[in-house]
Specification:
With about 220 residues, the chain is α/β, with parallel strands linked by helices. It folds into 2 domains: about 130 residues, 3-Layer(aba) Sandwich (Rossmann fold), CATH 3.40.50.1360; about 70 residues, 2-Layer Sandwich (Alpha-Beta Plaits), CATH 3.30.70.260. Helices cover about 25% and strands about 30% of the residues. The strands form 3 sheets. The chain has a 7-stranded mixed β-sheet, sandwiched between helices. Strands 9-10-8-11 form a 4-stranded antiparallel β-sheet. The chain has a 3-stranded antiparallel β-sheet with strand order 5-6-12, with no helix packed on it.
Length: about 220
């Protein structure tokens, strides 16, 4: 990760007591750079996944729960819809806890490669559902003309499950039907959470390439 980007994030972390951290390769890189700068020392750390918890404990840190709300939350993303100032998240299946942390944080920063800022005609929206309602949710979505599929594991046969023990489905959606899909998901009992993060959950989106980074801020 870029040195100047690490410096920028370190400055944001310094001076706060409670830090929330998301999930994924970008977050692991951020943890590494903050650790090298000593910026994680003395912080209460709240994380969105077991994977991130393991990365921190290997470095000697302890994680806690949401008894205290994060002053800052840092995470990655899969797609940045710049015209909406919104994100698609959930490639790692942790979007429920990530959204909980984002909602409960005073400030949120998301970091991603500049190639993730695009306007695709269609994309996949991850959704966590209850096992009990899996078939019913799939039928409801198909009945509305969407294309859901149960996410399956690479190293293990069967569906991928979240840290909450629930299956993940991925829904192929045309860009112009995104708002319709989000409204539908919000209305279906048994849908735990989805990976659409609206502008109300974003403060800054940082895009970087091999040489520099830029910061997009919510109006």
């Amino acid at each position: 990760m870029l040195e100047d980007l690490c410096d920028y994030l370190s400055e944001g972390v310094n001076g706060i007591d409670v830090l929330g951290l998301g999930t994924g390769r970008t977050v692991k890189a951020i943890i590494s750079c903050l650790h090298e700068r000593g910026s994680l020392k003395g912080k209460r750390l709240i994380v969105s996944s077991v994977d991130t918890e393991l990365a921190l404990t290997e470095l000697g840190y302890f994680v806690t729960n949401l008894s205290s709300r994060p002053q800052l939350y840092i995470d990655g993303f899969d797609v940045f819809l710049e015209d909406r100032f919104a994100l698609i998240k959930g490639g790692g299946g942790a979007m429920t806890r990530e959204k909980v942390l984002a909602y409960n944080s005073a400030r949120r920063i998301y970091v991603g490669d500049s190639s993730k800022a695009r306007s695709p005609k269609s994309f996949s929206l991850p959704v966590e559902v209850l096992w009990f309602t899996l078939s019913a949710v799939l039928d409801e979505l198909k009945g509305k003309g969407f294309e859901p599929s149960v996410r399956v594991g690479q190293g293990k046969m069967g569906p991928v499950v979240s840290d909450n023990g629930n299956p993940i489905i991925d829904i192929t959606v045309q860009r112009e039907r995104l708002e319709e899909l989000v409204r539908l998901l919000d209305s279906i009992p048994g849908v735990v959470e989805h990976g659409y993060f609206g502008r109300e959950l974003l403060n800054e989106v940082i895009l970087y390439d091999e040489k520099s980074f830029t910061v997009r801020r919510r109006d």
